[in-house]
Amino acid sequence: MDFAPSPRAADLAERVRTFVDTEIEPVEPEVLRDIAARRARGEDSWPPAPVVGELQGRARAQGLWNLFLPAGHGDGYAARFGTDGGAGLTNTDYATVAEQMGRSPLAPLVFNCNAPDTGNMEVLLKYGSAEQQQQWLEPLLDGRIRSTFLMTEPDVASSDATNMQATAVLDGDEVVLDGRKWWSTGAGHPDCRVGVFMGLTDRGAHRHRQHSMVLVPLDAPGVRIERMLTALGQYDEPLGHGEVSLDAVRLPTSSILAGPGRAFEIAQGRLGPGRVHHCMRLIGLAEKALELACERSTSRVAFGKPIANLGGNRERLARARIAINQARLHVLHAAWKLDTVGIAGAQSEVSEIKAAVPQMACDVIDLAIQLHGGGGVSEDFPLAAAYAGARSLRLADGPDEVHLGVVARHLLRPYAAPATASVTTPGTTSGTTSGTRAAEREASR
Amino acid sequence: MDFAPSPRAADLAERVRTFVDTEIEPVEPEVLRDIAARRARGEDSWPPAPVVGELQGRARAQGLWNLFLPAGHGDGYAARFGTDGGAGLTNTDYATVAEQMGRSPLAPLVFNCNAPDTGNMEVLLKYGSAEQQQQWLEPLLDGRIRSTFLMTEPDVASSDATNMQATAVLDGDEVVLDGRKWWSTGAGHPDCRVGVFMGLTDRGAHRHRQHSMVLVPLDAPGVRIERMLTALGQYDEPLGHGEVSLDAVRLPTSSILAGPGRAFEIAQGRLGPGRVHHCMRLIGLAEKALELACERSTSRVAFGKPIANLGGNRERLARARIAINQARLHVLHAAWKLDTVGIAGAQSEVSEIKAAVPQMACDVIDLAIQLHGGGGVSEDFPLAAAYAGARSLRLADGPDEVHLGVVARHLLRPYAAPATASVTTPGTTSGTTSGTRAAEREASR
Amino acid sequence: MDFAPSPRAADLAERVRTFVDTEIEPVEPEVLRDIAARRARGEDSWPPAPVVGELQGRARAQGLWNLFLPAGHGDGYAARFGTDGGAGLTNTDYATVAEQMGRSPLAPLVFNCNAPDTGNMEVLLKYGSAEQQQQWLEPLLDGRIRSTFLMTEPDVASSDATNMQATAVLDGDEVVLDGRKWWSTGAGHPDCRVGVFMGLTDRGAHRHRQHSMVLVPLDAPGVRIERMLTALGQYDEPLGHGEVSLDAVRLPTSSILAGPGRAFEIAQGRLGPGRVHHCMRLIGLAEKALELACERSTSRVAFGKPIANLGGNRERLARARIAINQARLHVLHAAWKLDTVGIAGAQSEVSEIKAAVPQMACDVIDLAIQLHGGGGVSEDFPLAAAYAGARSLRLADGPDEVHLGVVARHLLRPYAAPATASVTTPGTTSGTTSGTRAAEREASR
Amino acid sequence: MDFAPSPRAADLAERVRTFVDTEIEPVEPEVLRDIAARRARGEDSWPPAPVVGELQGRARAQGLWNLFLPAGHGDGYAARFGTDGGAGLTNTDYATVAEQMGRSPLAPLVFNCNAPDTGNMEVLLKYGSAEQQQQWLEPLLDGRIRSTFLMTEPDVASSDATNMQATAVLDGDEVVLDGRKWWSTGAGHPDCRVGVFMGLTDRGAHRHRQHSMVLVPLDAPGVRIERMLTALGQYDEPLGHGEVSLDAVRLPTSSILAGPGRAFEIAQGRLGPGRVHHCMRLIGLAEKALELACERSTSRVAFGKPIANLGGNRERLARARIAINQARLHVLHAAWKLDTVGIAGAQSEVSEIKAAVPQMACDVIDLAIQLHGGGGVSEDFPLAAAYAGARSLRLADGPDEVHLGVVARHLLRPYAAPATASVTTPGTTSGTTSGTRAAEREASR
């Protein structure tokens, strides 16, 4: 057992941290103020300030680009488009690095490591045809375009993917997309060109083979960004979250990823590392919030003492320290499981962190807000936006409750459930019993 | 012991509820959308839609106007300007009524019962000169103007009022105001005409006689609304929260409320009922959030069940039911204590509810958000704004921690603290000991 | 609305409190030490010390006897056997009084108001025949005998009463009892003479008419107290909790309460007020624990300060103050609902308090333990026993979760559940749908 | 980064687990029942059953003996007295092994790895003279005698070690011990021969050089075990917790460990690894409780479902899974810090786990209790005793709050506290200011 990061991870993490501290944070307040000012004046607040592009260039020049590219799968692209050292990182190594990116809302974009582009690029890497990779993956890796993910729907409980109402109907050599999606992150960016769409293709197929994933150019006829959403009052420019309608959008079947009916399989693979990335960035975000809390509470005085020394504040700060440390180890361990036994073997661990880390981050940020007084809820500190982001991640990529359900399923699997019906109503036939147990199994997902 | 509301409270509460349900809620979404649309277009989002004025007229015509006016003190004004029945309500009766107003963000304004106008009107009622009452109280009661409260400051921990840096210096028959205030609620409304300003007048006086409260017209030279603040991303139009600078603002000393040095005394009286009002509205807000949670979770289906029936959702809803019910009784009891023994006797109770109810409301609203999925954090439901409001009230009018300190002080008063120094270091002189204990007393506030 | 207790309740509460403070608490440590000493020596620790009987006599002489007797139903007995004033108390009045009894583990017995005797006496009062009342109720009211309740079973989840395996089979003019019960409180007392037994009589009847309640003399052939149980290490002498086996116990059918098949109906009526009594005593217990916490934390010093002033202790004490106050109002309100609308109308309220108050008491006692350091977990303070009692009440009379289920059922009743099957699988017939909804209703109990 | 245990740790952990599962757990219920039965009969419940000695012999024969012996320091003894492989384990390796011992209350004693013997042996190893090692360490390593630790006192808040009232006064070539100690674990065992006593020697010395540690034979004149304490009702035979008085106990100065005045230094070194051991055993205990919870909740049925599937139970089980996993990683990381940077560098980490893990264990065990219904609080399951043990560890070796204070001190060290006095009262001299800050530093310990 060795808790020290690998030399490569340590080196990259330190360089990313230095970049965030010295290049991004100094300009971040001005970038955010400029966005807010444009928004307040009714101007277009979506194009990022030119400095963001400059930062991207500098990050790339330093080899701090596309660091998310997975070891093994992304090495060729890593050599061409980015990562210092020329080979992809393990999930464990990337987790160490991603934490540092979580400290700034701009950093993931600056390092070309922001959701949902990372997930979309991974999907293209693993499942894209050569043509699809050339058309979409390469410009994404190059930072020339951005992408969005079209999965969640406003009209149904999307935590249950089988509820999905959007369709991707095959019609000869075309696929026709219809539906309405929302929380399509990235859709606000002026460079957003493509969406990864998920829809129902064949209701008659096995329940995990009914849906397809389709690459849809956002300028295709019938695609319309209906509006940009706020999450707890935040537009999160320059990426944002769109509500997107698709009305009889016709595309060649070559737009389908990996062939019809493979959406669930692709989504499964996409979301594992993505959840680890989210959680690791949340560790960095919580760590940043704790630093702000420490700074503020030691530099402001009330009732003759630094605020930190009043009432239970020191204990709360200590508990935040503990919670972050436990969560960090938990995420690193999940990443290590992904590296050592793969997604199938790490399902419980990935769901564990996804159920626990966003809530932890909310708690730490909320403490920081409280210690900042009125300033904490204002735009003068990054805390209100941080809270909105962390809170939204208790819903995005599966709400806490769904992940707890996955954890429980793994936990209880070794324990034989009793044949419940026979216990309570002895006369029940075995047919009914197995029906009941099938329902339970369903309920337990 | 009788938990039934008085006939008058029951009648008014029912009429207010009916008004909220049938007159306000049907137009509320459109009013809020219109504000958001103007804001998005860079137009002035602060003037309320004409329908708000119409609603005010109808509420007033029904005697549902200025219901906050306190029994005894406000009866004359109640007869002239509002309350059905012609006499002010007890705190207990008003609490029952105010809960219903908390259900809608527009309702308090519609009934002329919104903070900080209510507190300012109470101050004018109790401490205002005839001239001050005529100039400011009457148009406020009439709904012709609005007001703000200039107390909290951006540069110090304002939870400790002795930190205050703003000054109200006497200069002959003038008083000169300097300082910077923020979280001045109401400052965004186009009709906002006057602020109740608190500043240091005489550092040499007894610590609770150093500050003065001054009525400052917002169009006085030197007064400037620097910006409107967001609270967790919400501008809260049409009232909003301003940051206001005062630069050598000269006013006649007749602008001082009750004479120089009486600000603490006035603030004390102002904040007791105000905190009860806030808490009671939060009960209504939490109740509304719970209703939305029940509606959504019984009408959306995932994994073959209404969301309510998944995992721990029913238990969480039940716990929310319990928390609201306990909090409501707690607030009503505090109001009853205010009525029966006065502010001095109800200090612990008022701080108890102020420390507990906003957190309770946050928890219930957060549950409702979670049960709404992505919709919960969006602007499609009133939950994001509700959360922002409830969360801000964990800071406004004294952060939770300060109120817990008050509760602890009352709780521990009967228990003699040990002469601590003498226990640990027997040689200590009594002088040092009492110094230590004085410091402790200070620390315990 | 009036939060003041009635003059009669105030008077009785004060007299009970005085009795507890001046008569019981001074002898309590010695009584408990004597029990522990006998137990340690392997002697019979169950007979209470003679002083307990003396205290009972004095309480009775002061009219502080059988105060639990319900207004209306118990007035005759109240006049004959106890309550000062000669008429039973309302639930609201008794709640105020019962709180004071909760301060001492001996007090309920001293005032003849201990569980399960109170519940058993109420059952006899409402459902007992004249003969049953003469045989069992009168000596119970007189304090000459004690009783136990034989409901919970070791071999099944007794939170679901339909799981019950014990039987009460009719055989001519006899009823034959078989089964094993545990957590039969009171069974350890040497004067315990009778148990109220619940068993299955007719599986073919309506599900709430299958069980009977039978009065079983503990000296009937076939009844055997297998052992006395510990609850978190406590035997709780002199009442205790027994495990009792019944092996072909034959009794005349006149032993059945209210006739065969009425056990559920009786249990329902029995448990409502009983839960309020438990909760109210827990308020007194928590209040006592908080007092001990305040005393200890202001009288011990560490790091140069009274412990109360270290870290978050004052805040925790304040939160305990808040939690008790909210819980007290909640219980009083539930009692008032019982008085004004009856058990059927107060189901949610009774379950609300039963789900919330024991946990609150555990939390407050746990805080008191922590502030006492090692002493807190020892027998030198009543806290370890108090914790055991409060913790056990999260299970007794229905675990928290069952009561939360009741609260949720009431809360969600007004919201129409969707026809779930039709949403997810459009082809489903209405027959299946209503089957699903019946199952849901079942699940929601 | 590598989360896999070392081959040696994996091997030993598996062998210990197998031993616990196949040798200890089968006899454990009978051992505990026998103790309880002797206690109930008033017989001596302290001598362990003969099978415990047999188990010790078998464990030793398998090299599963004295596994706690630290790498480097204990290798010689490890080769002579125990550990398979002949060399001591790192803290990280031992943590993995100790978790398995935490599954059974008997296991630590069986493997000669129980507190406080382990800590006492470590102290003797590091600080003992050759004579002291021969007299006490060797028989302890051999399992021929047991020991106790005489530090905590009943009459003062022992969380602040400077409160200590016991004395160890030098008198020529003798040291004279006086005082009263409690929570002296191990004192109940019939083989307990020696105590490690801490007392004040020289009040005039530097505050961390005033106290001495002395090896006191329990049969020395003046030593008296006043009583054995219960912790939440548990005597914890065969080790137990004693209250011990020392009345003018005269010993040669050669009984002093490492010389007079070095008690704080020794205690510091003793407690670091000890706290990691406690925490790691608690992980095993919590894991065992979770297994029992899963077994019970899947094998009992209520309302037609396994209890696991009712209400929020699956979510709670999942949260327990998460909490244990986070805590385990946290403890392993703290152990790794001890190994890699030593006690001084791992202070925050050790206090983090000590503040977090006992509470986590309490929560998990409490959940298991709740899922067991009435059985959970009884002696039929090991849960009541487990809860008592975990709860006591929130007090033993420093209460949670003291450890949170240590964590906060480390967390806030980099942040300069403001010169508070100068902010609030500008005229204060620097002398007063630094006095204030010294006081703060003191307060922050």
Automatic annotation (TrEMBL), chains A, B, C, D:
Residues 11-143 form the Acyl-CoA dehydrogenase/oxidase N-terminal domain. Residues 149-248 form the Acyl-CoA oxidase/dehydrogenase middle domain. Its cofactor is FAD. Keywords: FAD, Flavoprotein, Oxidoreductase. InterPro entries: Acyl-CoA_dehydrogenase, Acyl-CoA_Oxase/DH_mid-dom, Acyl-CoA_Oxase/DH_mid-dom_sf, AcylCo_DH-like_C, AcylCo_DH/oxidase_C, AcylCoA_DH/ox_N, AcylCoA_DH/ox_N_sf, AcylCoA_DH/oxidase_NM_dom_sf. Residues 264-412 form the Acyl-CoA dehydrogenase/oxidase C-terminal domain. Residues 419-445 are annotated as: Disordered. Residues 419-437 have a biased composition (Low complexity). The keyword Oxidoreductase applies. Homodimer. Belongs to the acyl-CoA dehydrogenase family. This is Acyl-CoA dehydrogenase family protein.
